[in-house]
TrEMBL record:
Alphabetical list of PROSITE patterns matching this protein: ZINC_FINGER_C2H2_1, ZINC_FINGER_C2H2_2
Transmembrane segments: none
Superkingdom of origin: Eukaryota
UniProt keyword Metal-binding present: yes
Annotated keywords: Metal-binding, Zinc, Zinc-finger
Domain C2H2-type: 59-82
Protein name: C2H2-type domain-containing protein
A GO MF label: zinc ion binding
InterPro entries: Znf_C2H2_type
Length: 86
């Protein structure tokens, strides 16, 4: 898990999902899953994390414990702190 956490704070494109790594309720295998390519990670991120966000939803980076007021701010945080996923 420690390796997975460190890997989502790199400047190069990550292959692990920073949102999944931070979710303590997920099984360790899902939290540390490594995607074959950054493109696969992007697809995962859009399907599992962005698609279901609705107006007024509470948005939090579970890894950094930072809250956001909208999807755009969450995406910007991901890009600037965890690497370009979307």
């Amino acid at each position: 898990l420690e390796e997975a956490i460190v890997s989502v704070y790199r400047e190069k494109r990550p292959t692990r999902c920073w949102q999944c790594v931070g979710k303590k309720n997920l099984p360790i295998e899902q939290r540390t899953r490594k995607f074959c390519s950054p493109g696969d990670l992007t697809k995962h991120f859009k399907r599992k994390h962005l698609r279901h966000i609705r107006e007024g939803d509470s948005l939090v980076c579970e890894l950094c414990k930072v809250s956001f007021i909208n999807k755009m701010h969450l995406q910007r945080h991901g890009k600037e702190v965890h690497g370009p996923v979307t």
